[in-house]
Amino acid sequence: MIGYLKGTITHIFENACFIDVNGVGYRAIVSGSTLGNLTIGKETMLYTYMSVSENDITLYGFLTQDEYELFLLLITVNGIGPKLAVNALGAVTPDQMRLAISQSNMSVLTKLPGIGKKTANRLVLELKDKVGTPGDSDVMAVTVEDATAPQGMAAEALAALQSLGYSEQEALPVIQKQAAACDSVESLIKAALRSLGSGR
Hints:
Blueprint (H helix, E strand, L loop, with lengths): L3 E9 L3 E6 L2 E7 L1 H4 L7 E10 L4 E6 L2 H10 L7 H8 L4 H9 L3 H4 L7 H11 L9 H4 L3 H5 L3 H12 L4 H11 L6 H14 L2
Parallel strand pairs: 3-5
Antiparallel strand pairs: 1-2, 1-4, 2-3, 4-5
Helix pairs in contact: 9-10, 9-11, 10-11
GO biological process, one term: DNA repair
InterPro entries: DNA_helicase_Holl-junc_RuvA_I (IPR013849), Hlx-hairpin-Hlx_DNA-bd_motif (IPR003583), NA-bd_OB-fold (IPR012340), RuvA (IPR000085), RuvA_2-like (IPR010994), RuvA_C (IPR011114), RuvA_C_sf (IPR036267)
GO cellular component, one term: cytoplasm
């Protein structure tokens, strides 16, 4: 198993990146938080997890050991595979995830991508005593809304789309999907509008 990769980021995609290690390019699926901190041309180390199935071999990459270790915990829960775990980690920080699980905060957990009430209950039941409790007072003060609310560019784009008549429920998933490929609020709004328009 590959424990980590250290090399140069050569390409960044919607939910993945290419990292060149001594002339060999590896494709790694990454969370939204890791994706947002990658820079093309920069030497980077990614902690990795290799998922092997009958028809596929997928590499998942994490910029921090904290996110990597929480990912490993999440996939021990019945019903949570690597794809679901990495998507959930892209919606909140590791400390916010730990806080929600340790406090049995179903309001936060059920807002995570792909996490329904049953899966949220399993998360709490199986991980509550394993995740620990964040010690940062700023994290402890996070509200339910703060933990899952869009930030920065995404928040501005959401406000603009809502002013055009789109609901948060239909606009936010599109914004989150398009955000990694956009470098400004304007380009994000345009990309989201194209996607929303094609779906209507």
